[in-house]
Specification:
Blueprint lengths: L9 H4 L1 H18 L12 E9 L1 H11 L3 E3 L2 H5 L4 E9 H9 L4 E6 L2 E6 L13 E9 L10 E4 L5 E3 L5 E7 L5 E5 L6 E4 L6 E4 L10 E3 L4 E3 L7 E5 H6 L5 H8 L3 E4 L13 E4 L15 H5 L3 E4 L2 E2 L2 H5 L6 E7 L2 H4 L10 E6 L5 E16 L9 H10 L8 H19 L14 E13 L3 E13 L6 E14 L3 E15 L7 H4 L22 H4 L7 H5 L4 E20 L2 E20 L19 E24 L3 E24 L14 E2 L6 E20 L3 E12 L8 E12 L12 E15 L10 E10 L2 E8 L8 E14 L4 E20 L8 E25 L4 E18 L2 H11 L18 E4 L2 E4 L6 E4 L5 E2 L8 E5 L4 E11 L2 E16 L1 H8 L41 E19 L2 H6 L4 E15 L12 E11 L1
Parallel strand pairs: 2-5, 6-12, 18-21
Antiparallel strand pairs: 1-3, 4-5, 6-9, 7-8, 7-10, 10-11, 13-14, 15-20, 16-17, 18-19, 20-21, 22-23, 22-51, 23-24, 24-25, 25-26, 26-27, 27-28, 28-29, 29-30, 30-31, 30-32, 32-33, 33-34, 34-35, 35-38, 36-37, 38-39, 39-40, 40-41, 41-47, 42-46, 43-44, 44-45, 47-48, 48-49, 49-50, 50-51
Length: 1124
């Protein structure tokens, strides 16, 4: 039964007021700014006041505020001296004359285009020629957008014209002249086109790519991509929009498989669960007390940097991709060593969009998404099959005659229900098609000196479990002010989040419900229990989860974070930049979980515990971080051959956090969900909490040298200090070195036309990790609250100090090759890597005389090695018809091995190996993978009696399962992973299809043991309970007999080889830019329509129930983007 939402949306009810406040602040801010320039509109006179600026900045400003398009040689303009321009009520021509007349330049204004030329350059002469013929045409770019201001010249003459604002041109050609036209435009490749008498000549110009101008943003330094020695992946805004619309994390996985999301079979598509993310495997291991927990996920999460400042994985997941310019994945030592102690897990560098100058622009992006539950991996019995299974299992055969009569009567009552047509599909009861909507509004503008932008984003994710949601609001103001050699930037962002888990419970509660049960009684009231037959159920009566959904339950969480990042950049000369930053980050988290006294969880409470019914768990936490950095960069090219780069950086960070939690019980009524109403703390409970404070300082230097853009070297050295480690080991050095060779720039490659680019590189270096508790190295005490002596309270020693506890260090080796072939139609990037982590923090055993069994020390060793391969081929690239079809394939292989463990860790693992259970424990042993599966070897089911046969370590065959016989049975991670995507583009239309694949690993199929062989057949089960079961001597089957009651333990019979193929995303985009009708009639500059389908299908060799607590889903979305 569905019920109306009872959620407290206090945060979001305040949004209108917050919007009003932000709007008022923003308008007031803009109105107080002294911007000394008026927008053109339709006027021809204007004011301008700019001091000590470059000519390029003046032209950029004039172009933005006017209706004119400027065409000029940027290299020539950049050589001009800085100028002062101060005029009031003047015309455009007057401003241009004051700048260019005495500088050896001339300009022409025609058809809305301003063409600026150096004196002495060939001038274009237009006019009617004798014995001429007329020609018309249009010039566009790859995206079918018109190119105004393109120079069209008849080769060998000065006859030519310039394209108009829509890219059209008309000209007269000599009838007896060879008709070859030369098209030139700034930023585009100059093109020669033979005219063959076409009615209209359509020309598509290609962008001129300058490799030296391509930059890798590392979050501290920006390096030339052509001479960079590190292994990186750069994902652009366009790629992010073409590979998914669920969240940024899944989109990155669809693009680059080295960004690995470890799928949770339990939590499926739950929008409130953070995924486990890794880059090139796990470089850390949890300690003894964390072996069976999810701590491993936090230890191996990559460092995430956004605009130079660290953010959390949760903040990244809630980020709107409309605000992202690029995302760079740093992988090897050459790329990550600059982050020293934080770079062992890889680094994700996010660069957001900066405000663009010009008149005020308004942009809106909105999307509507449908989340559809995916139940394709579930196959449960219907009502008639389920009753038949119970009968065959002997559930209605009594030991005593009088009890058998009752059982037969019970069977007949259920049979009547089945015959009457009762067959409830319980899996659909807690589910819905979630309707999600996302909105992004952005205002931006300014002039070359001052730029501003304000953004508001709202994302409402409705999960497929009823009433589960995740709502996020982000607002920000970005300001930039530039003087002659200083740039001031300030970015303020506010994030609010409200999340709620479904009050309908977990999905597995519904999967096991019998289809002949009904949710309501004959009066229409929701049943609390389906069956209260004590003799049949033994007191564990089956509860109705729909009844709990009607109660006033609560499981919510929320956070509020505020971030302010301020920076000053000083550039006294072109070659040198000095940048200082200061950032403040604060976040407050709250979580509430309330179960009313009427909840079925308290149904078995005795009379003495009656007033303990109803519980409330509350947690609140606060965290803050302050950081400061100072960065200096110097780069220069000498003699047009030697390029030198040097950078220095110093950063400081202080962070602290506090968390409080307590659990209370005893509520008189479900309607009273106020925390203070509770009668007492939970039994044997008391308030809990934790706090931490840490500081870090780092100094890093980086230098690189390139000779003729052929040979290049790169080196960095960093020293980090942290309060996390022992008093004698607070500081540690980290370093990297890399070399590279652009072979395609060698003279002996000049005649090898089929190789366009060939680059090899190699790097080595050491990084570290500090994802640990703040007080691991310190001696700590705890107050003795239970024992007192009069009014005195004592303290106990909690943990021993280790002054020599030091950094975990990861040595990384990487070699790579980058190849472009056949006129760049076939491109390949391949990397081989080896990473060894030493000094893993673990527990060291101590003699009992110390009073402690262990303490923290650097003992463990770990290794990851593998390769990454990416190949892109252009099957079709027809620029004239504006047709492109490309296919990209990627392949990743990572193999990990545990080299060394502490003796305490070995003892703990030995204990786990000897512990029974249906599911294998997480066990780590030297020489094996962290993801190894250990189970007792099975020889299958004995055909003579239906019992399982096991192989002991001694080689003996037995029917007895013994945990001590467990052996390595496989690795719960694929040997190979990768993506295949294909993109088709035709004019304004693009279609992108992305697939993912895995093979070579194993999985322990828990469905076969928990939902088939060990399943309680009094509840509904997987259909395979009906099939392939041993029935009589001679049967060769996979499962034991249907009446077998002995519980099956962890056995190799359920370890299965995995191969999976998934359709990750289908994207269709129609992009309208520069559409004349939209621009003139609606004022729309750009309009984009996009549709996405995520997780369309999944094919796997392993058949198991996926999303046990929260189902997986398919997503269908439509997005509209418009800019005015």
């Amino acid at each position: 039964m569905e019920k109306k939402s009872r959620t407290g949306d206090s945060v979001f009810l305040k949004l209108p007021r917050m919007f009003l406040i932000m709007k008022t602040v923003f308008i007031s801010l803009v109105c107080t700014l002294n911007v000394q320039a008026n927008v053109f509109s339709q006027h021809t006179k204007f004011d301008i006041a700019m001091k000590n600026v470059t000519v390029s900045e003046v032209l950029c400003y004039l172009e933005e505020i006017s209706k004119y398009r400027f065409v000029y040689d940027s290299d020539a303009i950049d050589r001009m001296q800085r100028v002062d321009v101060e005029m009031k009520g003047t015309k455009l021509e007057t401003v241009l004359e004051s700048i260019f007349v005495k500088s050896g330049f001339s300009f022409v204004i025609e058809d809305g285009v301003v063409i600026i030329r150096e004196a002495g350059k060939k001038q274009i002469t237009a006019g009617i020629l004798p014995q001429s013929r007329k020609i018309t045409g249009r010039v566009r770019d790859h995206g079918s957008h018109p190119l105004p201001g393109v120079t069209v010249v008849l080769k060998g003459t000065s006859v030519g014209v310039v394209t108009d604002v829509d890219g059209h041109f008309k000209m007269d050609l000599p009838a007896d002249h060879e008709t070859v036209l030369v098209f030139s435009f700034v930023g585009m490749k100059t093109q020669e086109v033979y005219y063959k008498g076409e009615k209209e000549l359509n020309v598509v110009m290609e962008e001129e790519v300058k490799q030296m101008d391509e930059v890798v943003v590392t979050g501290i330094f920006s390096k030339s991509k052509e001479s960079y020695t590190g292994a990186v992946s750069v994902i652009t805004e366009k790629e992010l929009k073409s590979f998914g619309n669920r969240n940024i994390l899944t989109t990155l996985r669809n693009i680059d498989p080295s960004f690995n999301i470890l799928e949770s079979n339990e939590w499926g598509s739950n929008p409130n669960r953070l995924p486990e993310v890794q880059i090139r495997g796990a470089a850390n291991m949890p300690d003894i007390d964390q072996l069976q927990s999810d701590t491993k996920a936090e230890l191996n999460t990559p460092l995430i940097i956004m605009d130079g400042f660290e953010i959390t994985l949760e903040r990244m997941m809630d980020l709107d991709d409309s605000e992202v310019e690029t995302i760079t994945l740093l992988k090897d030592a050459s790329a990550t060593a600059i982050y020293g102690s934080r770079g062992a897990n890889g680094v994700i560098v996010i660069t957001t969009k900066e405000p663009e100058p010009g008149k005020l622009r308004f942009a809106y992006t909105g999307s509507l998404n449908l989340e559809v539950p995916d139940l394709s991996d579930y196959d449960v019995l219907n009502a008639r099959e389920k009753l038949d299974l119970e009968l065959r299992s002997g559930y209605y055969d009594g030991v005593r005659a009088e009890y058998e009569v009752q059982l037969k009567q019970k069977y007949n009552e259920i049979l009547q229900q089945v015959e009457r047509g009762v067959n409830i599909y319980w899996l659909s009861k807690p589910l819905r098609v979630g309707v999600r909507h996302r909105h992004n509004i952005k205002l931006e503008g300014g002039d070359p000196s001052f730029r501003y932008s304000a953004t508001v984003q709202y994302n409402d994710v409705a999960g497929v479990m009823k009433e589960s949601f995740r709502r996020t609001f982000n607002g920000g103001i970005n300001l930039s002010y530039k003087t002659s050699d200083l740039i001031f930037r300030n970015q303020l962002t506010i994030g609010l989040n409200k999340a709620q888990e479904s009050p309908y419970g977990t999905f597995d509660q519904y999967v096991k419900l019998n289809p002949y049960w009904t949710a309501t009684d004959e009066n229409g009231n929701v049943k609390r229990f389906f069956d209260e037959d004590y003799s049949y159920w033994g007191g564990n009566n089956p509860a109705n989860p729909l009844y709990n959904a009607t109660l006033n339950t609560k499981e919510t969480s929320d956070y509020t974070n505020i971030t302010n990042n301020f920076s000053i950049e000083w550039k006294p000369v072109q070659e040198f930049t000095l940048r200082g930053t200061f950032g403040i980050y604060t976040q407050t988290n709250n979580s509430d979980k309330y179960l009313p006294p009427e909840h079925t969880a308290f149904a078995d409470y005795a009379d003495d515990d009656y007033f303990r019914r109803g519980t409330y768990d509350y947690t609140t936490s606060r965290s803050s971080r302050y950081n400061f950095s100072l960065t200096a960069n110097y780069s220069k090219v000498f003699a047009e051959k030697h390029m030198i780069y040097a950078g220095l950086n110093m950063d400081l960070e202080d962070q602290k956090s506090q968390r409080y939690s307590f659990s209370v019980e005893g509520f008189p009524s479900g309607a009273l969900d106020f925390l203070a109403v509770a009668m007492q703390y939970k039994e044997n409970g008391k308030p809990g909490g934790s706090e931490s404070k840490s500081r870090r300082v780092g100094f890093v230097g980086n230098a690189s040298y390139s000779f003729e853009d052929r040979y290049f070297v790169d080196a960095s050295f960093r020293t980090d200090g942290s309060s996390l480690y022992g008093a004698d080991k607070r500081f540690a050095p980290f370093w990297s070195a890399g070399i590279g060779w652009n072979i395609h720039r060698e003279n002996f490659m000049s005649n090898v036309d089929w190789i366009n680019r060939l680059k090899i590189r190699a790097s080595v270096g050491e990084t570290g990790s500090n994802n640990f508790s703040a007080y691991e190295a310190m001696v700590t005490y705890t107050y003795s609250l239970s024992d007192r002596y009069y009014n005195w309270m004592g303290a106990n020693l909690k943990a021993l100090a280790n002054p020599d506890l030091e950094w975990q260090k990861t040595m990384k080796y990487n070699t790579g090759v980058e190849v472009n072939l056949l006129n760049n139609r076939l491109n390949m990037i391949c990397d081989l890597y080896l990473e060894r982590t030493n000094g893993l923090m673990s527990s060291l055993e101590l003699p009992p005389s110390n009073g402690f069994t262990s303490y923290k020390a650097n003992i463990g060793k770990l290794e990851n090695k593998g390769f990454e391969l990416k190949v892109t081929g252009y099957l079709l690239r027809d620029t004239e018809r504006e047709l492109i079809w490309s296919v990209t394939g990627s392949l990743v292989r990572n193999k990990d091995k545990i080299i060394k463990l502490s003796e305490a860790m070995k003892e703990a693992n030995a204990t786990l190996l000897a512990t029974g259970g249906a599911t294998p424990n997480k066990v780590w042993q030297e020489g094996d993978s962290q993801n190894a599966i250990y189970a007792v070897p099975s020889l299958g089911i004995d055909p003579s009696n239906g019992r399982e046969l096991f192989l002991k370590k001694s080689g003996e065959v037995t029917y007895t399962w013994d945990a001590r016989d467990r052996v390595f049975c496989g690795v719960d991670q694929p040997d190979y992973r990768g993506n295949i995507n294909t993109m088709f583009m035709w004019r304004d239309l693009s279609v992108n299809l992305s697939f993912g694949y895995e093979w070579g690993g194993q999985q322990y199929n828990s469905t076969l043991i928990n939902r088939v062989e060990n399943a309680d057949k009094k509840y509904n089960v997987d259909r395979r309970v009906y099939e392939d079961r041993w029935k009589e001597p001679g049967d060769r089957t996979f499962f034991k007999g249907i009446k077998e009651t002995t519980a099956t333990q962890a056995t190799s019979r359920f370890v299965q080889d995995e191969a999976t193929f998934t359709c990750q995303n289908l994207n269709i985009t129609y992009d309208l830019k520069g559409n004349k009708w939209l621009r003139h009639n609606l004022g729309i500059q750009t309009l984009t329509l996009k549709g996405d389908i995520a997780d369309l299908f999944r094919i796997s060799t392993i058949k198991q129930e996926r999303g046990t607590s929260y189902p997986f889903s398919r997503q269908f979305s439509f997005t509209l983007s418009v800019m005015f």
